[in-house]
């Protein structure tokens, strides 16, 4: 599956953009070779916690080749996962930095970095196949933590496409939680982007609180 994601060329606009960013780079990373390809999910195949973000960042995942790696969003996310015991270290800077996830898997609604961090609906729909395939492989998942509304919409659409009956009108709000049936619960958080973390909309404490709810559910045995 990893190979399929990395070789995917289904969204010409995104593939062009990722290649362009990888060729031009930014000044601070001029000496680095960018990944420039779709970025697969990452983590523990026996995970009970699935985290779903939006898409790789142009100079983060698109540079390093690992989701939420090498940017401020990743710094925020993995520091929190480390505090909660899901990550072996708080730093996520490169594919070979030694980071290991325990009981947690991190994926995204779109696997290619989009211009202005905005994938188009058709691109998100095309990329859902990969989330769906991961879902089928991650058979132990009991808590899904979505980062932002687009992550939530992508997850719910994917689950509906698998035939899972879900209530309509599930609302997104930071801290909201919804029952998805079969002992699986959905937890919502604002996205860990700088737009939220630099403005104080999402603080480490507010994110930790959602993560703690998800962790409690995983351990509850219900
Ligand atoms: S966004 Fe997804 S479907 Fe589109 S090219 Fe990238 S990996 Fe393929």
What composes the largest sheet?
6 strands, mixed
Order of helices and strands: HHEEHHEHEHEEHH
Low-confidence stretches: none
Structural class: alpha/beta
Mean pLDDT: 96
**Radius of gyration from the alpha-carbon trace, in angstroms:** 16 Å
Q: Output the strand order for the largest sheet.
A: 1-3-2-4-6-5
List keywords for this structure.
single chain; 222 residues; alpha/beta; six-stranded mixed beta sheet; binds iron/sulfur cluster
Sum this structure up briefly.
The chain has 222 residues and is an alpha/beta fold. It is 39% helix and 13% strand.
Q: Mind explaining what this structure looks like?
A:
The protein is an alpha/beta fold and 222 residues long. The chain contains eight helices and six strands; from the N terminus they run ααββααβαβαββαα. It has a six-stranded mixed β-sheet, sandwiched between helices. Strand 5 (177-181) and strand 6 (184-189) form a beta hairpin. The protein is globular. The mean pLDDT is 96. The structure holds iron/sulfur cluster. Iron/sulfur cluster (SF4) binds at residues 5, 8-11, 14-15, 38, 110-112, 123, 126-127.
Write the layout of secondary structure elements.
Layout: H1 2-7, H2 12-24, E1 42-43, E2 49-53, H3 61-64, H4 72-83, E3 104-108, H5 121-137, E4 143-147, H6 149-161, E5 177-181, E6 184-189, H7 194-197, H8 204-220
Parallel strand pairs: 2-3, 2-4, 4-6
Antiparallel strand pairs: 1-3, 5-6
